[in-house]
Amino acid sequence: MLFYVDRMKSLDRVSGLNYPIAHYLRRNLYVTGSGMNNPTYMARATEIVGADRLLFSTDCPYQYRPGGEARRFLNECGLEGAEKSGFASENWLRLTGG
After folding, report:
1. CA-CA distance, 2 to 16, in Å (whole number)?
2. pLDDT at position 62, please?
3. Taking a C-beta distance cutoff of 8 angstroms, is the pair 69, 37 a contact?
4. pTM higher than 0.85 for the full model?
5. How many C-beta atoms lie closer than 10 Å to residue 68's C-beta?
6. Which of 21, 57, 27, 28 is nearest to 42 (CA)?
7. What count of other Cβ atoms lies within 10 Å of the Cβ of residue 54?
8. Within the chain, which residues score under 70 in pLDDT?
9. What is the reported pLDDT for 63?
10. Distances (CA, A) of 48 to 33, 54, 60, 62
11. Are the C-beta atoms of 32 and 55 separated by less than 8 Å?
């Protein structure tokens, strides 16, 4: 869905919504890469929904890869400080009330 945001923007003029579609995505969508540790996808997701709506996850045990790939991605994801803490766990805790 994130990769169709630019195309969906063309619907803004005919949607009848109070705000652009991108506004609703940013306010209502949470995103997890589910083990797809791709910096390009991460940057695009951050651009669309914001770092406070990103959730870190892996596909363990289904896509488990020895060697610490998930940890390495978390350490090198391009986020720092509070944004990285949020991505690692705090966004999930806020979302679920945990």
Report:
1. 21
2. 65
3. yes
4. no
5. 10
6. 57
7. 24
8. 60-65
9. 65
10. 14, 10, 26, 28
11. yes
